[in-house]
Amino acid sequence: MARKIVKRGPKNYRQAELTHGGLRLRIDLDDYTRAPGDFGVFDLATEKYLRVGEVVLIDEDQKYVERRLSPSGSSPANLGPVVDWTPDVFFEPSAVGGPYEEVTVPTSYGFAPAWLFEAENKDVWVIHIHGSWTDRSIMFRDVHAFKSLGFTSLVPSFRSDTEVSPQQAASSHLGQTEWLDVESAMTYAVAHGARRIVLSGWSMGGTIALLTAERSVHRDRIVGIVLVGPVTSWRKTITAGAARAGIPAIGAGFVMRLLQAPPFAKMLGLGEAINFNALEWIDIPNRVVAPTLVLHSISDQEVPWEISLAFQRANPETVTLIAMPESHHTQEWNTSPRVFTHELTSWVRKTIAESG
C-alpha cells in the first residue's frame, strides 16, 4: 500500500479496434471507457493519439463499448490491439491553439522543461500544476479552459517527472518537495514580466499549489488559486482509498506512520519522510489565505467530494466550492467542458478584478 501511494504504478492497457469503416472505436468496457464526454487513446503500435467522443453502443454481454471518433484529424487504417485510455484530448501543445514554445526552467538540480503559452496579457500568468504520476501534457485541458481570459500560461514539469534532467526523484513526495519546482516556475514567470499569478493545480497539483501559496517568496503576487479534484488532506485521501480497497482504517493509519519514519521512507526511495501535518488543510481552520476556487465532481472516488466540502468549511472566507457533474477523478472538464470553463473563467475574472 505504501508503494502504491508514492510509486508509479503499471499502465492499465485495454484492447481496442476500429469499426464502421474507421468511424468508431470499440474498446474494453469499464467504468472509465463508458463515461460520457471526450477522451483520448494512445495506440502503442503506431505511437499515435486519437480523440474519441460520445458513446454510441454498450454491449454488457461482450464487455465492450463503441464510441465515435472525433472528426478532427485523420484516423489510422488500423488500431491496437492494445491502447492506453487517457483524459488528455489535445495530445500536443499546438492543438490547444495559439503560440507556444518549449522553455527550460532553472531549478536547484538542473533544468525542468515547460511549455510557455504567451498571450496578450503578460502581466497575469497562470502556472498549471499537474498531479502525481501524470505529466505536464495532462494540463492542456486546463490551458484550454483559461484561454479565453488572455493570460500567459506556463506548464512546468517537476522532479518526479521522467523528463527532467538530470533524473531526480523515483518516488512522489506527495507535493512536499515538488512545490520547490513550482516555486522555480514562479521565479521564471516573475523574471519574464509576471506581476500577478494564478496557481491552478489538479489532484496532487492542488497540494503543491497550496504549499507554494504559503511558502513562495513570490506569494504576494498570487491573486488566486484554482483547484480541480484537489488533495487537501492526504490523511483523509489515503484513508478513503484504503476503505475503497477493503483495507480497514487502522491499516491506512499504520502505513502513514511508516511513511513518516525516515528509515522506511528511505527504503521506498523517498529523499525525506512525509510530514502529513504539513499536507493537511482540513483539520487546520483558516489556513488558506489566497482566494481559492475548487471545482470537484460529486462522484469522485479517488479524492472524495466530501474532502473538498470539509476543506471549504475549514476555510469559509477564502474558498469557493463548485459541485461539478458526475465524473471520474480530474475528469470534470471531459464530462462538462462548457460548465467547467464557465465556472472557472467567471470566478477568475471576478477575482482578478478585485485584486487589481
Helix content: 25-40%
Shape: globular
Structural class: alpha/beta
Total strands: the figure is: 14
What characterizes the major β-sheet?
8 strands, mixed
N/C terminus separation:
46 Å
Q: Note poorly predicted spans.
A: none
Strand content: 25-35%
Number of helices: 10
Radius of gyration computed on alpha carbons: 20 Å
* Helix-strand sequence: HEEEEEEEEEHEHEHEHHHEHEHH
Calculate the mean pLDDT score and round it: 94
Strand order of the largest sheet: 7-8-10-9-11-12-13-14
Fold blueprint:
Elements (H helix, E strand, L loop, with lengths): L1 H5 L7 E6 L4 E5 L10 E5 L4 E12 L4 E6 L12 E5 L14 E6 L4 E7 L3 E9 L10 H7 L4 E6 L22 H13 L4 E7 L1 H12 L6 E7 L5 H11 L4 H11 L2 H6 L24 E6 L7 H10 L4 E6 L7 H4 L1 H19 L1
Parallel strand pairs: 9-10, 9-11, 11-12, 12-13, 13-14
Antiparallel strand pairs: 1-2, 1-6, 2-5, 3-4, 3-6, 4-5, 7-8, 8-10
Summarize the structure.
The protein has 356 residues and is an alpha/beta fold. The chain has helices at 2-6, 140-146, 179-191, 204-215, 234-244, 249-259, 262-267, 305-314, 332-335, 337-355, and strands at residues 14-19, 24-28, 39-43, 48-59, 64-69, 82-86, 101-106, 111-117, 121-129, 151-156, 196-202, 222-228, 292-297, 319-324.
Question: What features would you describe in this structure?
Answer:
- With 356 residues, the chain is an alpha/beta fold.
- The protein is 28% helix and 26% strand.
- The protein contains ten helices and 14 strands.
- The protein has an eight-stranded mixed sheet, sandwiched between helices.
- Strand 3 and strand 4 form a beta hairpin.
- The longest helix is centred in the C-terminal third of the chain and has 19 residues, at 337-355.
- The chain is globular.
- The termini are far apart.
- The model has no long low-confidence stretch (mean pLDDT 94).
